[in-house]
Amino acid sequence: MMKDMIALQLLPCVLFLTVLLAMSATSHAAALRLDLTHVDSGRGFTKGELLRRMAARSRARIDSRWSPPGRGANAHAVTAPVARGTVGKEDFNSEYLIHFSIGTPRPQRVALTLDTGSDLVWTQCFCQVCFPQPFPELDTSASGTARGVSCFDSLCAQGSFSLSGCAVGDNSCMYTDSYGDNSVTTGKLYEDTFTFQQAPNGKAAVVPNLRFGCGMFNTGIFGSNESGIAGFGRGALSLPSQLKVGKFSHCFTTIVESRPSPAFLGTPDNLQAQATGRLQSTPLVRNPESNHYYLSLKGITVGKTRLPFDASAFALKGDGSGGTIIDSGSALTSVPEAVYRSSWRSSSRRCRCLSTKTTPTSTRACCASPLRRRRRRPPCRS
What we know:
Helices cover 13% and strands 29% of the residues. It is an alpha+beta fold. The chain folds into 2 domains: 11-269, Acid Proteases (Cathepsin D, subunit A, domain 1, Beta Barrel), CATH 2.40.70; 284-356, no CATH class.
């Protein structure tokens, strides 16, 4: 259990939970819409299996993200299994995939893990060593607008790659990017036109000259329904940064729904008009040592009981350690062990199953309804 860092994740079980993430940018683009699908959507799992897989993905994500130094600079979203009811490394992925197309005149489909913990946008192409994906890999030679990025380009030198350099013969930008779970992608940096389907049966938005990685050697833990990763971090090569949008947001449906949910790059004009109440916001904190999105968490309350930890327990430290992040690749909230056990003890007084049938590390679910006078505590349901 990590001691200093706290990873605060967005729960995908909440219907249409929208979180606005502020980013610095020199200009703003009109809002673009992308479709998000849950990684297990349409795969025939029961609700219990979906919950177990969700928990397994979150545990694996934390293990890889906060692993010892030397296991990779980024944090690829690691996920759960192909076989029903099992947990393995064959189908690890993130919680959500985004869908759009690359190239002209016939845009080619990509399905990328949405990862707020990294910057590079990449998909498989010219495969030498690759993982299986459900549709053909990208063919840049079939696009009339694709071109290689020079190794003398500033983004090649300044990108947050593990390694970058010049290809022999054509001076194109070669890169290697590694992740916290030891997954690695190596390839060439390209520039091409991206097409975003704005809404079902809606007009597509076409954006030229966006940079992405063409991954030729891709090894490690990747899912069978993804073709790469879409970095949504603060770095210059991330999708929000390249689009120069000041904000992005995503809405999550429950894990048992098969329909897609939207992600917006930029702020839709009608967002405020469609809100059912006043929009809530909280400031993000910058960490000079990281491109992650940090929150200023002050405390945790269970029911009406405030846990006995002040804001310093969750605060970002001067050396860049500690702090609370929002992470797209995990569904569960992870906290230091002392905070977790205090929360469990407080919950056990409100939920009969925690005090009689579970331990602090049990994965059994509990109906955590508030206690009411003359009413029994809610029973535990597996």
